[in-house]
């Protein structure tokens, strides 16, 4: 039987090739024709139009030049689609990274950022090949909602300067409260033209989303704002006046500057990039699965994200991850395969080659308006309200994560939120474990029962009065060990025979096994026969490995089997 189980388990375990074959290969094996390519081309074009202004806006908000956002979407996005484990994932720069990237640039410069991006890529590749992607998805829902909302607040605050064209004296602080203080002190320098451009951009995006949702609202709004700024010669900063525009070609790939000291200095940033990138990309893949009914390969996706970050760094780009909004746009546009994502990157390159001179006229206030809309859309408002009202524990996890992300650090918010969520889960699971007595009916109850019921009862539960039966149900683990152990210690030596039924125990850990072992030892010292019934193979293995084995205990398949053993033992 054990050999058969091992054989079935081996057959159910996916092979290395199954786990790490890119979805692109899977699609091509299925057959790929002209009709499918047309669907992918339309979807890729749609996503490219959305990604064009967004990539530049995210790069600027991250403290780097706009071209780096385009390089990231072109190179990183292509690799994500070509090697990834999701059919529909769109890779590129993401708003979730703005805070981390900006702080890394502030502390270590662009060279440090690119090195950290490459190191994060290596970490993601290792994480994928170690098959840890499954565990990264175990982030509690309140944590994801909390840190996403926190990031949205920080992104919006970071755009206030550009939204209103404020003229700050000195460098803009990175932390939220000092930033708001500095912005408040500069309130008298509001540029009405920049504020009007921002308002037009946000209003146009909202109007197009409401009345023409299939149109590329962000790109059209940016084009409208750029046209207005040029026609009326508005005194606003543009990509041309601040950055000199964007290049028309990709740079030559090159390794980032490396020294052991710089690598050690950016190591915490690289770990943060890898952690957030893994969470964001797998969350995006899960969303895509929910929209399409498909299933992604999480570890394959992490490997692809790793190579994409290395590729982006070689071309001077920033962090790459799966972008939820662009992935959803890709699906809604009718994408069939990862080729749509590859086409999105290729079309972005074409746009950059052709329209690079026109990018110089884009007002920074318009890109700030785009990011303001992105920040608003990032907040899962319905989920936030639902979690606040669902339970006190979920509300605490949500609000603590949200507050730490805003006022402390993104990574700290995720780690603390995960820890609180885990404690909450342990508490709930511990309360779900039950140990209930299965005592015989009292004599009066038996006398009052109908003859048929009485006969059925006698056949099933008639038992020696010196025997007690308890049923254990639920996952028995360290969280419930103390409570259950106290009860077992109290009852294990009260009768001559003690039956512990574990047929409703799906899981048992080492702490729980140790508790049962201690109770069995105590029962043996008191001369009590200890029976364990209904234990699954995994539960029995755990108990056996902790010394819960004959002759200290007797195993039986069912309570009835244990009773039969007792009956035969008492039969002369």
Automatic annotation (TrEMBL):
Highest taxon, organism lineage: Bacteria
Membrane-spanning ranges: 41-62, 69-90, 110-132, 139-160, 180-208, 215-234, 270-290, 302-325, 345-376, 396-426
Keywords, comma-separated and alphabetical: Membrane, Transmembrane, Transmembrane helix
Topology within the bilayer: Multi-pass membrane protein
GO biological process, one term: transmembrane transport
GO CC terms, sorted: membrane
Alphabetical list of PROSITE patterns matching this protein: STAS (PS50801)
Broad class of where this protein is predominantly found: membrane
Record SUPFAM superfamilies: SpoIIaa-like
UniProt domain STAS: residue ranges: 457-566
Subcellular localization: Membrane
Matches recorded under InterPro entries: SLC26A/SulP_dom (IPR011547), SLC26A/SulP_fam (IPR001902), STAS_dom (IPR002645), STAS_dom_sf (IPR036513)
Pfam families according to UniProt: STAS, Sulfate_transp
Record-given protein name: SulP family sulfate permease
Lineage of the species this protein comes from: Bacteria, Pseudomonadati, Pseudomonadota, Alphaproteobacteria, Hyphomicrobiales
């Amino acid at each position: 039987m054990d050999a058969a189980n091992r054989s079935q388990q081996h057959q159910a375990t996916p092979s290395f090739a199954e786990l790490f074959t890119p979805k692109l290969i899977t699609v091509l094996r299925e057959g790929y024709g002209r009709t499918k390519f047309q669907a992918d081309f339309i979807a890729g074009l749609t996503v490219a139009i959305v990604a064009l202004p967004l990539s530049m806006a995210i790069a600027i908000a991250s403290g780097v030049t706009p071209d780096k956002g385009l390089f990231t979407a072109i190179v990183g996005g292509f690799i994500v689609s070509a090697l990834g484990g999701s059919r529909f994932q769109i890779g590129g720069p993401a708003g979730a990274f703005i805070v981390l990237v900006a702080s890394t640039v502030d502390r270590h410069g662009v060279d440090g950022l690119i090195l950290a991006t490459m190191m994060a890529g290596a970490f993601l590749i290792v994480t994928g090949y170690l098959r840890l992607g499954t565990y990264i998805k175990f982030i509690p829902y309140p944590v994801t909602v909390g840190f996403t909302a926190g990031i949205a607040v920080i992104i919006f605050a970071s755009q206030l300067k550009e939204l209103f064209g404020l003229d700050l004296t000195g460098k803009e602080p990175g932390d939220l409260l000092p930033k708001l203080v500095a912005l408040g002190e500069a309130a008298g320098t509001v540029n009405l033209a920049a504020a009007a451009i921002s308002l037009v951009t946000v209003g146009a995006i909202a109007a197009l989303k409401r009345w023409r949702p299939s149109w590329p609202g962000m790109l059209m709004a940016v084009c409208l704002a750029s046209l207005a700024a040029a026609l009326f010669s508005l005194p606003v900063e543009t990509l041309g006046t601040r950055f000199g525009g964007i290049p028309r070609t990709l740079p030559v790939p090159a390794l980032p500057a490396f020294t052991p000291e710089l690598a050690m200095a950016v190591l915490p940033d690289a770990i943060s990039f890898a952690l957030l990138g893994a969470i964001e990309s797998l969350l995006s893949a899960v969303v895509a699965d929910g929209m399409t009914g498909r299933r992604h390969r999480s570890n394959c996706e992490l490997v692809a994200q790793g190579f994409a970050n290395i590729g982006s760094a070689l071309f001077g780009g920033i962090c790459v991850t799966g972008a939820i909004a662009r992935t959803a746009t890709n699906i809604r546009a009718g994408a069939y395969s990862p080729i749509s994502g590859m086409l999105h990157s290729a079309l972005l390159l074409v746009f950059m080659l052709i329209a690079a001179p026109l990018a110089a006229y884009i007002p920074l206030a318009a890109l700030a308006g785009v990011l303001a809309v992105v920040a608003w859309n990032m907040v899962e408002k319905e989920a936030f309200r639902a979690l606040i009202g669902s339970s006190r524990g979920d509300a605490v996890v949500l609000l603590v994560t949200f507050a730490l992300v805003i006022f402390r650090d993104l990574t700290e918010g995720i780690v603390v939120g995960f820890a609180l969520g885990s404690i909450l889960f342990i508490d709930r699971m511990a309360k779900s474990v039950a140990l209930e007595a299965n005592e015989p009916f009292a004599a009066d109850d038996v006398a009052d029962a109908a003859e048929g019921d009485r006969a059925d009862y006698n056949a099933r539960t008639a038992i020696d009065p010196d025997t007690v039966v308890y049923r254990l149900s639920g996952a028995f683990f360290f969280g419930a060990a103390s409570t259950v152990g106290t009860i077992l210690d109290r009852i294990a030596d009260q009768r001559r025979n003690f039956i512990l039924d574990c047929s409703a125990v799906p899981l048992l850990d080492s702490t729980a096994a140790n508790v049962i072992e201690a109770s069995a030892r105590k029962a043996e010292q008191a001369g009590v026969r200890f029976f364990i019934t209904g234990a699954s193979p995994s539960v029995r293995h755990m108990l056996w490995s902790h010394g819960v084995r004959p002759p200290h205990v007797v195993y039986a398949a069912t309570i009835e089997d244990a009773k039969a053993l007792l009956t035969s033992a008492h039969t002369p």
